[in-house]
């Protein structure tokens, strides 16, 4: 009998490459809908971009993102 415990690794931002084979940058959203939520995005601008993007964080509950949003405003 083997005791194999599956340890889920902590969420971390790893390096990823998009279709351009470039390391994607990650961005933190500052919109009211998705405040503080991070996503990967192709580092090339506009029409040069391959259009790659992907969420890092799962969607926050609306009250949490609203809380972050309010804190951001207070700091300003
Ligand atoms: Zn790209």
TrEMBL record:
Pfam families per the UniProt record, alphabetical: Zn_ribbon_GRF
Record keywords, A-Z: Metal-binding, Zinc, Zinc-finger
Molecular-function annotations in GO: zinc ion binding
The GRF-type domain, residue ranges: 18-59
Protein name: GRF-type domain-containing protein
Taxonomic placement: Eukaryota, Viridiplantae, Streptophyta, Embryophyta, Tracheophyta
